């Protein structure tokens, strides 16, 4: 919970820090590297979310304890063996 004495940008920084602490580091990769990571996984799961005007597709997955994120202006061609979960939104804290 954010301290009521903290407001504005300070509150945003606290929220982002708490979110990163809760989920760990997020590794941002290019779309082709994201596909490569999925191909290395034994039972890959990817979360996909189109977002916003001029849709950018966002994707997130985990591999060997790390969380990987990418975004693309077009939908990625995900291998058929990957389980895909559709999400309304993927939130990545900004630091």
Overview of this structure, please?
With 95 residues, the chain is an alpha/beta fold. It has a domain of 62 residues: Signal recognition particle alu RNA binding heterodimer, srp9/1. The protein is 26% helix and 31% strand. Strands 1-4-3-2-5 form a five-stranded mixed beta sheet, with helices on one face. A hairpin with a 4-residue loop joins strand 2 and strand 3. The radius of gyration is 15 Å and the shape is globular. The mean pLDDT is 82.
Here the CATH topology of one domain equals Signal recognition particle alu RNA binding heterodimer, srp9/1
**Basic shape:** globular
Structural class: alpha/beta
How many DSSP H or I helices? Answer: 2
Q: Order of strands side by side in the largest beta sheet? A: 1-4-3-2-5
Distance between the termini: 18 Å
In short:
By secondary structure, the protein is an alpha/beta fold. 26% of the residues lie in helices and 31% in strands. It has two helices and five strands; from the N terminus they run αβαββββ.
Main attributes of the structure:
95 residues; alpha/beta; Signal recognition particle alu RNA binding heterodimer, srp9/1; five-stranded mixed β-sheet; 2 helices; 5 strands
What's the topology here?
Elements: H1 9-23, E1 26-28, H2 31-40, E2 45-51, E3 56-63, E4 66-72, E5 83-86
Parallel strand pairs: 1-4, 2-5
Antiparallel strand pairs: 2-3, 3-4
């Amino acid at each position: 919970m954010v301290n009521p004495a903290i407001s504005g940008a300070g509150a945003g920084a606290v929220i982002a820090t708490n979110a990163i602490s809760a989920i760990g580091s997020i590794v941002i990769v290019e779309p082709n590297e994201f596909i490569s990571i999925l191909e290395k996984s034994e039972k890959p799961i990817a979360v996909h979310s189109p977002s916003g005007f001029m849709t950018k597709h966002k994707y997130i997955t985990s591999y060997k304890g790390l969380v990987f994120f990418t975004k693309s202006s077009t939908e990625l061609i995900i291998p058929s063996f990957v389980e895909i979960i559709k999400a309304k939104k993927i939130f990545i804290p900004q630091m």
